[in-house]
Write a structure and sequence with these properties.
Layout lengths: L1 E2 L18 H8 L28 H9 L4 H34 L2 H12 L3 H19 L1 H14 L7 H32 L4 H24 L6 E3 L3 H13 L8 E3 L10 E4 L6 E5 H6 L2 H16 L2 H35 L10 H14 L1 H23 L2 H11 L9 H7 L5 H15 L4
Helix pairs in contact: 2-17, 3-13, 4-5, 5-7, 7-8, 8-12, 9-11, 11-14, 11-15, 12-13, 12-14, 14-17, 15-17
């Protein structure tokens, strides 16, 4: 899935069950302060320095747009986004500690023994172990999950749900994770046991096929579990978008909207799905707050993802990463089990009790790979930005969208900071690109 801005989706297939300390959360949720207003207006004017003129300066126009962001709003956005850097680290360290504790305390081996006492059927044993492991991880990570997904989002004014509806969405995501995870885990361990030498190759292929399947069914079957998706019937909005689609040979007959405002204040749009399930969707926050020019700019960006085949290219790129990931798993698991396998009572890679070690190695792999994966996505987003500018011809709309993105994403990071942590171009760079396009394509009359 590709997004113009960070998607505010409430949950995913990998979400975990939040089943502990509910009384504590309900009691303390009433203590949340009202979210501060962003200070960024819904309708963002075109500043004088960004108006077409004989001496149009893209850099000056960019600075003029950035000056429209109130200092308090900028400080809040920077604090929110920079706090995410630390959460990336703490999430990794916390997960690593949990995995090591489960292995060293013998809990993983005990869960495997319990599954083996229940049934002799291999895939069913694996599924039972997965359920045990899933629920255990849900309990021990619950406090951190609630802080990150609920309290922190409310603190910075990003969330709109009370705890009950939020928790309900987490349960839905957890149920999906429980079902999909059981199926995938059983399939992968079956491959390991039957193909002990080449399991990592076949495992990577099965994992890729699974992700492809989720991408295929997501827009039609998964997204509606969390949000209402409807066709947008406002001709003032849809007609310019559909004209743009036809002009760019995009076989789209409808534009969809999603009621994201029930969960978040973020404005977003995305292109998702594959083949007949592909959809271009914008959320109702964008509809209610964005100008027509802004909406057209965002939709031009999303059409860029379609025309440039970013979904398929992204699948290929991440397919390569999956193969490398499984190769790293093969080496790492063999090495670790040779040293500590007896202590953990893990009998080999085909033993389901190895799963916490798989989680530990995988989290380390993707933690280290963060700049690489972010760069892959950011490159495609930059390409879609440029396509959108040429398709929609709304540079000021693109600048307005970048400013609204600045409500929760740092606008002016350093170069290294952007390379490591940003999966989209920074707001400053997006506005500058739009103003450069404007200077070259829309001269003063």
């Amino acid at each position: 899935m590709r997004h113009f801005v960070v998607n505010g989706a409430p949950a995913s297939a990998g979400s975990v069950l939040r089943v502990a300390v509910i009384v504590f959360v309900f009691a303390t949720s009433a203590l949340l302060a009202s979210p501060p207003p962003s200070g960024i207006p819904n309708q963002i004017p075109v500043p004088p320095a960004a108006q077409p003129s004989a001496h149009f300066d893209p850099q000056a126009a960019t600075e003029a747009y950035l000056a429209l962001i109130p200092p308090a709003a900028k400080a809040r956005s920077d604090a929110y986004f920079e706090g995410g850097y630390w959460l990336l680290l703490w999430d990794f360290l916390y997960g690593a500690i949990v995995a090591l504790l489960i292995l060293n305390l013998g809990w993983s081996a005990a869960m495997r023994d319990f599954a083996e006492r229940i049934t002799r059927i291999g895939p069913l044993r694996t599924a039972i172990y997965w359920i045990e492991y899933f629920l255990l991880i849900a309990v021990v990570t619950f406090p951190l999950s609630v802080y990150e997904g609920y309290f922190r989002e409310h603190k910075y004014g990003m969330a709109t749900q009370t705890f009950g509806p939020w928790f309900g969405d987490q349960l839905k995501g957890a149920l999906l994770g429980l079902i999909f995870g059981a199926v995938l885990t059983a399939a992968l361990f079956g491959i390991v046991r039957k193909l002990p030498r080449t399991w990592w190759i076949w495992g990577a292929l099965v994992t890729f096929a699974f992700l492809l399947f989720v991408q295929l069914i997501g827009p039609v079957y998964i997204v509606p579990m969390f949000n209402k998706v409807t066709r947008l019937n406002d001709p003032k909005i849809t007609e310019p978008i559909l004209r743009m689609a036809r002009a760019n040979s995009i076989p789209v007959n409808d534009v969809y909207q999603i009621d994201a405002s029930r969960q978040t204040t973020r404005m977003s749009a995305n292109v998702s799905g594959i083949g007949n399930t592909m959809r271009i969707t914008l959320n109702d926050n964008l509809l209610h707050r964005g100008s027509p020019e802004e909406i057209q700019a965002v939709m031009g960006h999303e059409m860029g993802h379609y025309v440039l085949d970013h979904i398929y290219i992204g699948l290929l790129e991440f397919g390569i990463i999956i193969v490398i990931w499984f190769a790293a798993l093969r080496w790492s698991l063999d090495w670790a089990l040779a040293r500590w396998g007896a202590k953990w009572r893990v009998h080999g890679i085909g033993d389901t009790a190895v799963l916490p070690l798989v989680a530990l190695v995988s989290s380390l792999f993707f933690f280290i790979l963060t700049p690489v994966t972010n760069t892959i996505i950011r490159t495609q987003e930059r390409e879609a930005d440029m396509y959108g500018l040429n398709a929609a011809r709304q540079p000021d709309g693109a600048a307005q969208a970048a400013i609204h993105l600045g409500e929760y994403r740092k606008m002016s990071p350093g170069r290294v900071e952007e390379w490591i942590f940003f999966d989209h171009p920074s707001g400053r760079n997006r506005i500058l690109a739009a103003m450069r396009w404007k200077g070259e394509n829309l001269p003063a009359k």
